[in-house]
Amino acid sequence: MTDPLLDGDGESVLRQVYDAAGPYLASLAGRPVLDPAAAPLLRELAGDLPDKGDGSAAAVRKLLHVGTEAATHSAGPRFFHFVIGGVTPAALAGDWTASLLDQNAAFRNSSTFATEVETVALRWLRELFGLPEGYGGALVASATFANFTGLGAATHWWGERHGVDVAANGLVGLPRMPVLSGGYVHASSRKALQMLGHGRDSVEVFARDDIGRADLAAMERRLAELGAPAVIIANAGEVNAGDFDPVAELADLAERYGAWLHVDGAFGLFAALSPRTAGLVAGIERADSIACDAHKWLNVPYESGFAFLREPARLAAAFGMPGAAYLPAPDDPRGGYALLGPESSRRARALPIWATLAAYGRSGYQAMVERHLDLAQHLAALVDAAPDLERLADVPLCIVCFRVRPPGVPEEELDDLNRRVGAAVLADGRVFAGTTLYGGRVALRPAIVNWRTTESDIEAFVEIVRSLIP
């Protein structure tokens, strides 16, 4: 086979994927998250670039054979590593539709359809989280890009305060932009600042303990001392134990000192969906920018972050492209979301978001979030009841931070023991959860955000962890 035009297997190769999808998805509940015995299959994908290809049917057959066995089955119910949701049936179908239609969602005149779907999806997301009507935003590739977008707009705002258009002229000649946060600031915010030219170490951290809880008094003293425009990062959902910065109090500080408030709500923004946890994000409606990641608790495919701004016109000011004769200007009615964020050509990532929100609605997502809240409390209770486990933190949301602590093991040996248990959990593959450092102690921090997860998965997780304690 030398030319895709001559490949007559176009429809049959799609049938292969469809035929594989049903059995694979049905098997997820009983599969290990990672099967170590399948690793040798990866060698089948290697070798030199073929001069003459095998055709689409043979290529996809091999990819499915290897992938369904050797992939990390993170779409399944026992993947608790990082903060990763599965993909709902509607979102998966929406994603297939996005690939089928192959739209460039950059501009209205490249795809009116994709632009309209994104406009509706963003409005629905705003309504889902209860944000004020004036907020607007754009879909981006990840939580990191959502932070990049929000902090990019903040950079443009900060430059304005110094009489400089940083989108046109950059940061040269300006002082360092002050960025303040509590100790929960995430690496993705630091990476965003790194890419924006501020430096990942530009964040001034004000923490009142070794956990990272924000020291508001120290932060206020610094803002008063600066007497200049600054950016505050509030963290809605810390990744080790699911704790929250006091968003409303940080909003008060921002208002009092004329600062920009950016909220990193990568997964914690979903606390707004339940009356049981909505208080954790009180004040979010006063933020200047908000970052979130739909592939987490919305359970849609990857490359589905989003950013909201209180003044959405700032997106075009910060991310609009310089004129090219064939491209629309930011204020052109033919413009589109490529002018409101860091990417130009863009996949129609709004389709799975629209599909899943249309399918399950506000009440469906509230029910899922509340089920996960219950599962997190169930896991916490199992940890508390186990004689060889120790919970290290409260459970405000969906993450349970704990460590193994068998009777008689000296404190100074526990960190090494937990590292070994964490490595054993990942190597075993039946469930997945990694280790972290919490308050100076090595711990496990399973996150429950997959729509498939049930009580039996939580109970299996605890049993497997305990069985791997040496």
Automatic annotation (TrEMBL):
The protein's name: Aspartate aminotransferase family protein
A Pfam family annotated for this UniProt entry: Pyridoxal_deC
GO molecular function: aromatic-L-amino-acid decarboxylase activity; pyridoxal phosphate binding; transaminase activity
Chain positions found as N6-(pyridoxal phosphate)lysine: 296
UniProt keyword annotation of Transferase present: yes
Keyword check for Transferase: yes
Bilayer-spanning residue ranges: none
Co-factor requirement: pyridoxal 5'-phosphate
InterPro entries: Aromatic_deC (IPR010977), PyrdxlP-dep_de-COase (IPR002129), PyrdxlP-dep_Trfase (IPR015424), PyrdxlP-dep_Trfase_major (IPR015421), PyrdxlP-dep_Trfase_small (IPR015422)
Family classification: Belongs to the group II decarboxylase family.
Keywords recorded for this protein, A-Z: Aminotransferase, Decarboxylase, Lyase, Pyridoxal phosphate, Transferase
Organism in which the protein naturally occurs: Phytohabitans houttuyneae
SUPFAM superfamilies reported in the protein's UniProt record: PLP-dependent transferases (SSF53383)
An individual GO BP term: carboxylic acid metabolic process
